[in-house]
């Protein structure tokens, strides 16, 4: 149940950001749920491989290259999902940053509700 709720919160964050950012688009809420699911899978499977392969450049840039890795994962998801599009890597970087920020806010609200 917790996993489904987190997935729906991530989908909500994707929908909100698609309205705010002109370079990112989602066709429907179903597509947003699929985007949230695919991003979760890619972050679980592909991101560790990319982090290990790019470890030297990540160390040299003091971790800033991880932003590029997150943007690449978002662009890969945009290629897989037909109703989700990101126009450039710059929009993907901004989408990644704002998605992380919005997810942390939404998940912290969820944790506060459970404490009461």
Topology, please?
Elements: H1 2-20, E1 24-26, H2 29-53, H3 55-60, H4 65-80, E2 84-86, H5 89-115
Helix pairs in contact: 1-2, 1-5, 2-4, 4-5
Overall average residue pLDDT: 92
Overall helicity: over 70%
| Tally of separate helices | 5
Order of helices and strands: HEHHHEH
Portion of residues in beta strands equals: 5-15%
Main beta sheet strand tally, sense and closure: 2 strands, antiparallel
Secondary structure class reads: mainly alpha
Overall, the morphology is globular
Question: Cα-atom Rg, whole angstroms?
Answer: 15 Å
In quaternary terms, these chains amount to single chain
* Count of spatially separate domains: 1
**Distance between termini?**
18 Å
Spans of at least 5 consecutive residues with low confidence: none
Structure description:
Pfam families: Phage_holin_4_2. This is Membrane protein. InterPro entries: Phage_holin_4_2. Helix 1 crosses helix 2 (29-53), helix 2 crosses helix 4 and helix 4 (65-80) packs across helix 5 (89-115). With 116 residues, the protein is mainly alpha-helical. The mean pLDDT is 92. The chain has one domain. Strands 1-2 form a two-stranded antiparallel sheet. The radius of gyration is 15 Å and the shape is globular. The protein has helices spanning 2-20, 29-53, 55-60, 65-80, 89-115; strands spanning 24-26, 84-86. The chain contains 5 helices and 2 strands; from the N terminus they run αβαααβα. The longest helix is centred in the last third of the chain and has 27 residues, at 89-115.
């Amino acid at each position: 149940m917790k996993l489904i709720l987190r997935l729906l919160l991530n989908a909500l964050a994707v929908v909100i950001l698609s309205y705010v950012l002109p370079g990112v688009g989602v066709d429907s809420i179903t597509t947003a749920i699929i985007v949230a699911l695919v991003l979760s899978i890619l972050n679980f499977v592909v991101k560790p491989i990319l982090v290990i392969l790019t470890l030297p450049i990540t160390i040299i840039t003091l971790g800033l290259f991880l932003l590029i890795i997150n943007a690449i994962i978002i662009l890969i998801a945009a290629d897989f999902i037909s109703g989700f599009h990101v126009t450039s890597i710059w929009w993907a970087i901004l989408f990644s940053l704002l998605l992380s920020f919005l997810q942390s806010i939404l998940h912290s609200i969820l944790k506060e509700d459970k404490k009461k």
